[in-house]
Amino acid sequence: MIRKSWTRFASVETTLGLWASSLRDVKRRIRPLFAQERSAANAGLFLDGLLGDERRKTGWMRAEAAGDPGPWRQQALLGRDRWDADELRDLVRDYVVEHLGDDEAVLVIDETGFLKQGKASCGVARQYTGSAGKITNCQIGVFSAYVSRHGHAFIDRALYLPKAWSDDLARLKATHVPSGVGFATKPQIAARMIARTIAAGVPFGWVAADTVYGVGSVERDLRRAGKGYVLGVDASHIFRSWDKPRRIAGSAANIAKTLEPSDWKRLSAGAGTKGPRLAAQ
Asked: Domain range spanning residue 75?
């Protein structure tokens, strides 16, 4: 029993050592993003705080974990220090590919909402978010996740700006939105993310997304790039096969009605806020 316990303890020690080594490597990789050593050190402390035991990662709680008297140093990192967020995005993407890269990987595109109380946060508006399951005051972020047999991680992100924001120059300036950033639909944001991923040489075979992204140029771009895709569409979406004569033609709803019950298989998409999420395939 003592020998087994020691073996288990040694395994935990080894795992913790590997995690610590990996975290040091990450901090080393992001160091060139910062002109000052102080900013780089604050970035490292910010990562430590995010990985800490605190259930809520507020600025005060992260500061306390870092041994700071208040949240000002970490707030300065996010709001006033000069560093390139897109360059950091690319570093994260390359790190993910290095560890999880696979030619049959899937790129998953989806958005999520961040609930807000006020009106000052960039992009905040009354809009639908699956996080709450209703229209509410929130920000919306569009994300791209890399999923392979080795694991999964986010590799891209963009804040969705409603037209009420993109058309208001004073609001954009007050929230430090870069010049040249204008209105873009969520499918347009997704198309740009996919194009960036392909241009960077990221290996993947498929893209999966829900009905928000089953319209517009996403499908066309993926076909041209030779990538597979599974994109959701609404019931009124028209399908036409390329065969001559066409074997399939009509709306998604009408095509579904021609299928037999045995043609469908109900699969689980995981647990949701309102119970199991089941989908027919």
From this structure: 1-82
